[in-house]
């Protein structure tokens, strides 16, 4: 039987996360320099999903003064069961709400329709802005985390 648990990552535990989910190595700086918070989903043997939120982006739209957090990354292991990504996202949203924030934003490539649909299905239904930089065209999606969303016939 698999027992899932969520953990807050620390500088000491980030090594195991990087080993299980390689792209999550991007979270090391966030955790080690306290620029934000990182959570991971553990299945009893390994980490299967991880998400990180940062507190400020040095950007007038994405600031803590506006009670917003920025979801800087959401990664899932290749071996993760279906649904772990959504579980990780919803847990992260709950933690942001618990921390007293009202809004959560995420940057998504305009070319990644699957990712846009994923976030839209999880309540990221407002486009804050669209821009283009060295990484391509993207949009900033926002979710009001104080509002309950209906998913699969139930309120999350």
Task: Give a structural overview.
By secondary structure, this protein is of the alpha+beta class. It has one domain: Gcn5-related N-acetyltransferase (GNAT) (Aminopeptidase, 3-Layer(aba) Sandwich), CATH 3.40.630. Helix content is 23%, strand content 36%. It has four helices and nine strands. It has helices at 14-20, 28-32, 84-98, 113-121, and strands at 5-8, 36-42, 47-54, 68-76, 103-109, 126-133, 136-144, 150-151, 154-155. The strands form two sheets. Strands 1-2-3-4-5-7-6 form a seven-stranded mixed sheet, with helices on both faces. Strand 8 and strand 9 (154-155) form a beta hairpin. The longest helix has 15 residues, at 84-98. 32% of the residues are buried. Residues 60-64 have low confidence and may be disordered.
How many extended strands? 9
CATH H-level name... which superfamily? Gcn5-related N-acetyltransferase (GNAT)
Label the structural class.
alpha+beta
- The best one-word shape is globular
Brief sketch in words of this structure:
With 156 residues, the chain is an alpha+beta fold.
Task: Quickly list its features.
single chain, 156 residues, alpha+beta, Aminopeptidase, 7-stranded mixed sheet
Give the topology, please.
Elements lengths: L4 E4 L5 H7 L7 H5 L3 E7 L4 E8 L13 E9 L7 H15 L4 E7 L3 H9 L4 E8 L2 E9 L5 E2 L2 E2 L1
Parallel strand pairs: 4-5
Antiparallel strand pairs: 1-2, 2-3, 3-4, 5-7, 6-7, 8-9
């Amino acid at each position: 039987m698999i027992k899932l648990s969520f953990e807050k990552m620390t500088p000491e535990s980030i090594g195991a996360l990087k080993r299980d989910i390689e792209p999550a190595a991007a979270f090391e700086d966030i955790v080690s320099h306290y620029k934000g918070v990182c959570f991971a989903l553990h299945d009893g043997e390994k980490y299967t999903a991880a998400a990180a939120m940062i507190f400020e982006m040095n950007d007038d739209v994405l600031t803590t003064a506006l009670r917003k957090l920025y979801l800087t990354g959401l990664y899932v292991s290749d071996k993760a069961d279906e649904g772990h990504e959504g579980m990780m996202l919803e847990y992260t949203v709950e933690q942001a709400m618990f921390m007293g924030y009202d809004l959560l934003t995420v940057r998504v490539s305009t070319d990644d329709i699957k990712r846009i649909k994923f976030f839209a299905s999880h309540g990221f239904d407002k486009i804050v802005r669209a821009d283009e930089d060295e990484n391509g065209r993207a949009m900033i999606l926002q979710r009001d985390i104080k509002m309950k969303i209906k998913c699969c016939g139930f309120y999350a």
